[in-house]
Amino acid sequence: MAQSYLSLEFIDKTFERNGTKSEVLKQVSLGVDKGEFVSIIGHSGCGKSTVLNIIAGLIDATSGAVFLDGKHVDAPGPERAVVFQNHSLLPWLSVYENINLAVSKVFRGKKTKSEQHDWVMHNLDLVQMAHAKDKRPAEISGGMKQRVGIARALAMEPKVLLLDEPFGALDALTRAHLQDAVMEIHARLGNTMIMITHDVDEAVLLSDRIVMMTNGPAAKIGEVLEVPIARPRNRIELASDRTYLKCREAVLKFLYERHRFVEAAE
Amino acid sequence: MSVTQLNIKESKQVSPKAQVVAFSPAKPTRPIGSMVVEKARRLNATILPPLLTLALLVLAWEILCSSPTSSLPSPSRVLSESWELIIHPFHVGQGVDQGMFWHIAASLQRVALGYALAAIAGIALGVLVGQSQWAMRGLDPIFQILRTVPPLAWLPLSLAAFRDGNPSAIFVIFITAIWPVIINTAVGIRNIPQDYQNVAKVLRLNGFEYFAKIMLPAAAPYIFTGLRIGIGLSWLAIVAAEMLIGGVGIGFFIWDAWNSSLISDIIVALVYVGVVGFLLDRLIAFVGRLVTRGTANA
Fold this sequence. Notes:
Chain A has helices spanning 48-56, 95-106, 113-126, 142-155, 172-189, 200-206, 235-238, 242-258; strands spanning 6-17, 20-32, 37-41, 63-68, 71-73, 82-83, 160-164, 192-197, 209-213, 221-226. Chain A is of the alpha/beta class. Chain A starts with 5 loop residues before the first strand and ends in an 8-residue tail after the last helix. Chain B has helices at 2-23, 31-64, 75-81, 83-87, 100-131, 133-146, 151-162, 165-190, 194-203, 207-245, 250-259, 263-291. At the A-B interface, helix 2 of A face helix 9 and helix 10 of B.
C-alpha cells in the first residue's frame, strides 16, 4: 500500500503488570493524509489514548511501527506536538515563558532571539491569548489554559498535531469556543491533526474522518467514517444539516448498538 | 467574552462603595480615610493579641519569682542585673567577654557555613536518590538510620577527626541539617507529575535542561520544606555544640553564664536565641515563597 503522510502499521500493544498480560491494541493500522483532521472515538478504556501516545512516542508499541513523512518514529519529538488533556502548562512559568520554552528549544540556532519572540507572540495571537502573556497558569481559566496549551503545541511547528481529549475537562460553552478556535486554526494553517475524543458531536463537527474503535481488551479499528461536509463548518447551520445528522447517527449506532460499552469487560 | 469583562468591571466599581459603608460610616465620602482605618484595624488585630499575652506572661513571671528566696530571677531583676549586657550588644572586650551581637554573629557564622554545605550536598544527594531507583534502594536505609543519630553524638567523632572546635561545630550543623533536605528533595523529585515529564520528552529537553527547567522548579516547594526544617535543627544544634567546644558563640556564652551563676544573663541570651531562630525560619520561608511563586498551586 502506498504510505500516507502519517501511517500506523499493524500496531499491537500489550501491557504487562504483575506477570499478567493485558492486550490493549491489536493490529491497529491507519493512514492519515497531510492536512487531514482525524478523530479517534471510542468508549473509555478502549485504548484510544494509547494509540495517541504511541504516535507521540511516549509509549512504545509492542509490535508494529509508526511512520511520519516517510520516516520511522519511535521516540517523542516536537514534530509530533501534543496538546495534553489537562493542559500540562508549567505553573512556575508565565504564559509567555511556557511557549518560549518550546520555541527556544525547537528553534535554537534557526531563529534569532527577536524572531523567536515574534513567533511566540504570533502563536499567542492565533489562540487570542496575547493579552495574558505575563499571567501564570494559575491566574487564567481552564479554557484559557487549554488555548495556551494549543499555542505551545502549534509553536513547535509540528508535522502533526496530536490532541488528547483536549476539551474533555471544559464546560460545554468553553468547549464550543475552543472547537471553533481549532477549526479556524486548521483552516488557516492546514495542519495535520489527530484528536482523541469521546464526544460524538465534536468528532463530526471537526473531523474529515472519524476512526471508531471497538471496545478493549484487544481493541481495534472498527470502522472509519468519512465526514463529507464542506468547510468552513458552522455549528448552528449543521444542527439541521442532513449529512451531519447522518454521520452523527452512524457514529452513535457504532458506539451504542454494535459496540456497547460493557462495564464488566474492564 | 466582552459581556463577561463588562460584568467584572461593574462588580469592581461596586465593591469599594461597600467597603466605605462597612468600615467607616463616619466618613462615607473618603475611601482613602477608610483604607487607613482598615489598615490600622488589621494591624491591631495581628499585633495586639501577642503583645497582650506577652505582657500577661511577664506579669505572671514577675509575681511568681518576686519572693527574695526564689531560685530564678524575676523580669525586673533580669533587667537590673543584666542591664550592662542588654544595652551594650556591640561591646568588644577580651576573649569571650563580648557583647551579645558578637556571640550571635559567631554562632550565625558557623550555622551559615554548615547549613550552606548541608543545603548543597543535601539537594545533590536528594536529586540522586529521587532520580535513581538503585541509589534510593542503596542509600535510603543508611539515611534513615543516620538521621536518627542525635546531633551531639557526632561531636566527639568530629572532634577526633578535625582536632579543632570550630570545624567540628560546623560539621555538627552540617550533619544535622542535611537529612531533612535530602529526604524532602528526593520526595519532591519522585513526585514530579508525569505531565511535566511528557512535556520535557516531547520537547526533547536534554539532561541539564530537564534538571534546570523542570526538576528543580517542580521540586522547589519540597526542597524548601526540607531547608526550613534544616535551619531550625541547625539553630537547635549550634547552641548545644558551642556549649562543649567553647570560644565566642551564644552556646558557650550560656554555659559560661551558668558557671558564673549569672542566671539573668542566661535569660537574656535565651531571648536572643529565640528571636534569631524565629527570624532564620522566617527568612527561609520568605526566600521559599519568592522562589516557588506559582509552583505550589498547579
